[in-house]
From TrEMBL:
It is found in: Membrane. GO terms for biological process: regulation of intracellular pH; sodium ion import across plasma membrane. It is a multi-pass membrane protein. It comes from Vigna radiata var. radiata. It holds the Pfam family Na_H_Exchanger. Residues 46-441 form the Cation/H+ exchanger transmembrane domain. One of its GO terms (cellular component) is plasma membrane. It comes from the Eukaryota. The chain crosses the membrane at residues 20-40, 52-69, 81-98, 110-134, 172-195, 215-236, 256-283, 303-323, 335-362, 382-402, 414-435. This is Sodium/hydrogen exchanger 1. GO terms for molecular function: potassium:proton antiporter activity; sodium:proton antiporter activity.
Amino acid sequence: MALLLPPLHLTTSYLSTSTIVALCVFFTLLGTCVIIGHLLEENRWANESIIALLLGLCAGTVVLFVTNFKSAKILIFSEDLFFLYLLPPIIFNAGFQVKKKQFFKNFTIILLFGVIGTVISFCLISVGALMLIQWIGIVNLGIKDYLAIGAILSATDSVCTLQVLNQDETPLLYSIVFGEGVVNDATSIVLFNSVQSLDFSSSNSMTALKLLGTFLYLFSTSTALGIAVGLLSAYIMKNLYLGRHSTDRELALMMLLAYLSYMIAELLSLSGILTIFFCGIVMSHYTWHNVTLSSRTTTKHAFATLSFIAETFIFICVGMDALDIDKWKSSKGSAGISVAVSSTLFALVLIGRAAFVFPIAYIKNRINTRENTRIEFRSQFIIWWAGLMRGAVTIALSYNQFAEAKSTSSTQDSALMITSSIIVVLFSTVVFGSITKPLIEAVQSRHPKPTSFDSTDNVEDLRFLLLENNGPINQSNNLQIQRQSRICMLLNHPSKTVHYFWRKFDDKFMRPVFGGRGFVPFVPEVAAEIF
């Protein structure tokens, strides 16, 4: 037995004991979170995000006791780990699993909430932080830091709300909350990157225009890159048909191209979040239909599983990192100042969220008066509530901005902003997240909404059909009526009209080249047997 010990030591010497212990702890926590989440599936006050966060806090507390309150770190939560390895599978799966019909049917309102609303929240939080935080006594932050705070706290985390809403019972509400959540994260990160790219040492009236131009450039180019890579994957799958030899290659190529789109965007200093999200949408629309049936099932479950593990891992890391003693000590702020700053930031989050949700919903209801597309007040409240929680994006961006003393920020004030962001994330996720399920259930139960058949959609489809076929009568005199009717439909129902013409364009030009629904792969062996 003694002779076996040296060889055993030699074979494992390349692995650090601390690394093995850290990985064992995290895998144990992940497994525990899955089991507890299953047992508490029907619980009104708990969800998987809160469970993972609390497990991380408990594990961090145990490590603190073991190390005599010297450190609670097992693995360091860094923005590189988050943005390069954990966030991409989550965002890609969101785009890959999205209900495209509902998403693009409500695309206008999603963009209003996700882009315009986030910009409004960004401006209010930045201005409010500039005035109130200085009034509290934090005077060492620069204008760039306050703009960064606005972008950091504009990033929402609507996971808790989405776990409560039913996609089949409330398709409009679910689509808005889900779509706005993804677009909001992308917009917040694009705003943050835009702030980082500008020089505020000599700011003037053109700085705001430069910020807007940078934002629009990053948003449009990142989206275009994601669509291009998605179409490339569809074209490769359609023409090579890798599944005739190995379905593993289909899955591998889809994963690699999706991750490649994210890395190319980061290499070009674009928004990888937007790129991989739209890449996921395009892949689900074209590429997924070009692979074998077994690969379709495998890809859906594989992407969902990776997303679930990454999301759980993030919340565990956030919980453990919240007990970083070094960061709390370096802030050197009293408990009163820390609570004051955190309360101020969270109050700005509440005000910034309400400042765009209710006005945009009101304007939308005034423009579109159809009953089945109106956003009722209870739905507006749920949309507002869904955006109050803050998550890992807030923590990662906060570390990116304040981990090192940049510009005029002192080390103490930078550490204070990080700890205040952690407090906002913990409070919003645990407190607000725990009451999300009973609150939304109470709101929805008091105002039951009967399931109704949307006959107006079929009437519009019938009108489109008659217009497309020139109608049953007066075909020679109907051209002018067709044009006027289509213009009226475009003005009255832009989303549905654009969706209709997109489907015509897609069927005629895109699907023959990139495949998609209804595509039957050409297999040489089968063709040879037929002939």
